[in-house]
Amino acid sequence: MEDNQEIYSYAIKSPYLYMDAATALTIFRRAITPYTVFNDDEWTEFIKHLSFSKLKKKQHFATADTICDKFAFVVSGSVRYYHIINGEDITSYFSFEEEFTSSYKSFLTRTPTITYIQALEETRLINISYDAFQQMLANPLIAHKMERFGRLVAEHYLCCYEDRVASFITQSPEERYLQLLQTGREILQRMPQHYIANFLGITPVSLSRIRKRILEPVIK
Question: Could you tell me if residue 186 is inside a domain?
Fold first, then answer.
């Protein structure tokens, strides 16, 4: 229990969490239930391999041309994923509270990522490093749970990617925006408009026109 207590006391004393570590880990444990369920002994072993961190606004979790050495659970805050294309910053995705963030291909293959991941506001994370993940896969107590956890997280990333690609093939920009209104209000409330336009694959001017067309029947 000493190692376990060390993690708790570290997080409580540090400025890295806006809540106490026990609460943050309870949220994390609940959030990963769809991926795997740890019994108490397994959970005690699992959290020995976690670390806590904080990103300031605009600080990067990952940068292009480097290996993304960890994946993380967003306790609070948000991050955006973007690429630099012909010198232009293009936002492609977001992650919010109780979601994972990583350049997962880079994490798994140990190859440099092409993606930047940047905090849009002060963001607090629970991290699993690549080395820690490998140690857990070799741990007899939790290896089978970690194999399932890793597989289901990878499947989640694949489904998100397929949905994203399909939306650009099957939907108009206005349809994508309407879907965002239904399922992604967090983005609309917390993100700058030019990031939302990037996410939808349109210009800020086009986004303004779409919003105007949608609002006109309401105003009338």
Answer: no
Residues 6+ apart with CB under 8 A from 15: 54
Range of the domain at 64: 2-170
Per-residue pLDDT of the chain (220 residues; tens, 9 = 90+): 334 443 443 343 333 344 678 888 999 999 999 999 999 999 999 999 999 999 999 999 999 999 999 999 999 999 999 999 999 999 999 998 999 999 999 999 999 999 999 999 999 999 999 999 999 999 999 999 999 999 999 898 889 889 989 999 999 999 999 888 887 666 678 888 899 999 999 999 999 999 888 876 554 4
Global model pTM greater than 0.85: no
**Into how many domains does the chain fold?**
1
Asked whether residue 194 is assigned to any structural domain, the reply reads no
Residue 206 pairs in a beta bridge with none
Q: Could you tell me if residue 202 is inside a domain?
A: no
User: Other CB atoms closer than 10 Å to residue 57's CB: what's the count?
Assistant: 11
Contact by Cβ (8 Å): 47, 4: yes
What is the sign of the dihedral through the CA atoms of 37, 40, 42 and 47?
positive
8 A C-beta contact, residue 32 and residue 45:
no
> In Å, how far are 4, 6, 138 from 48, measured between CA atoms?
6, 9, 14
Report the CATH number that the domain containing residue 81 is assigned in CATH.
2.60.120.10
- Report helix, strand or coil for 66: coil
User: Directed axis angle between helix 2-13 and helix 21-31, to 10°?
Assistant: 110
Q: Looking at the domain assignment, is residue 201 inside a domain?
A: no
